[in-house]
Design goal:
This protein has 373 residues and is of the alpha/beta class. It is built from ten helices and 14 strands. It is elongated. It starts with a strand and ends with a strand.
Length: 373
């Protein structure tokens, strides 16, 4: 049976989210801001929850309505068929994203929905369900924008950027979903050597490696939200997991990372080893400006420091040196650079051939392609 779902992502990654949903076989895809609606059966839902790399959350909509007041929110929530969602002995939690002048205290609507749900269940069976904020059987997603309310079931649980391989954070770790999205935006394929010469904690390279070998993004997750759903299909879930067990290293796969700080490289190696990729990703302690030319065309994806996030004196001169190094030693290659410092980016001295705006945390950043002729 086909059902309606929503996949959420980071700002700027909507095009690659749509591409990824299409690759799984989703239909009737409708992209929106930081999300896409789509249709699929329960097997498709399980596949996306298990393997998608550019998705933060996967939701099944329960209800969508407009409200006039707090009481309106309570009663419209109370009227929902909660017995079809929550078993008598199941726990639940509510995750809220609230942007409404009706609710200056953003935590309050979640409490209203909780009370309405509990009161309805108590009316139906004589007792209230319990709340478990850490490991609920059912996680409910509440989204309110002004007077519009959307209530959904969270099919995964915690955010899908939590891959489970990170042992070392570093100063400014790149979100795993953002890293996966940058790789897609850049059009990288495993037959192209990929270099990250300012690799930090190694997230871009780790995401590239896991995608290249066909590893599901959530393979380390112990439990998924849909496993607590009343209509969960354990047999189909086992089938999905068994189908995605085989990993293959593509012939010629080359992934290389460097950083000038030995401690940072050691941290990156911890993450890479934690992901079981120590034989696939090569790393080196080396300042970018001292790197030997690759001697062949490569794709560079790099996230240099920028002063909004990491204090960096003379940022404009630093970015000029990046451009000079690329022009001198990487002829024939393609460089993609992510930065929120637009002023410094102009000092690279190269004409970008593509430019995307993405969000790195709260920062609006540019992801630019430079073809090095």
């Amino acid at each position: 049976m086909m059902r309606d779902y929503i996949a959420t992502t980071l700002g700027g990654l909507e095009p690659v989210l749509v591409q990824e949903l299409e690759s799984f076989g989703a239909t009737d895809i409708e992209p929106g801001q930081r999300m896409a609606r789509f249709k699929g059966d329960i097997e498709l839902l399980y596949q996306i929850c298990y393997s998608a790399r550019t998705t933060l959350r996967v939701l099944e909509p329960l209800a969508s309505f407009r409200i006039l007041s707090e009481k309106d929110l309570y009663w419209k929530t109370f009227d929902l068929p909660w017995r079809k969602v929550l078993g008598p002995d199941q726990t639940f939690a509510i995750t809220g994203v609230i942007n409404s002048r009706m609710f200056p205290h953003t935590n309050y609507p979640s409490l209203v929905v909780k009370d309405a749900l509990c009161d309805r269940i108590r009316r139906d069976i004589g007792r209230r369900p319990d709340v478990d904020r850490d490991q609920p059987d059912i996680r409910i997603n509440l989204h309110i924008f002004e007077d519009q309310v959307d209530i959904s079931l969270d099919a995964v649980g915690s955010s899908m950027h939590m891959r489970g391989y990170r042992r070392y954070q570093g100063l400014a770790p790149l979100n795993e979903v953002l890293a996966a999205g940058l790789i897609r935006l850049a059009g990288w394929t495993p037959d192209i050597p990929l270099w990250d010469p300012m690799c930090g904690s190694g997230t871009i390279l780790t995401e590239a490696a896991e995608w290249a070998i066909g590893r599901p993004s959530q393979i380390r997750r112990g439990r998924f939200g849909f496993q607590g759903w009343i209509d969960h299909e354990p047999g189909i879930w086992r089938k999905v997991k068994l189908a995605d067990r085989e990993e293959t290293i593509p012939e010629g796969l080359e992934l290389f990372g460097a950083d000038q700080d030995a401690d940072i490289i050691e941290g990156a190696r911890k993450n890479i080893r934690g992901a079981g990729l120590g034989e696939i990703i090569m790393t080196e302690v080396c300042d970018f400006f001292q790197l030997k030319p690759p001697g062949k065309p490569v794709m560079i994806i790099m996230n240099p420091p920028y002063d909004e996030k990491i204090p960096l004196e003379e940022a404009e001169d630093f970015y000029k040196r990046i451009g000079d190094k690329l022009k001198k030693d990487f002829t024939g290659s393609t460089a993609w650079i992510l930065s929120a410092n637009k002023t410094a980016m102009r000092q690279i001295g190269l004409q970008s051939s593509q430019r995307f705006q993405v969000f790195n945390g709260p920062l609006a950043a540019e992801f630019c392609e430079y073809r090095l002729f």
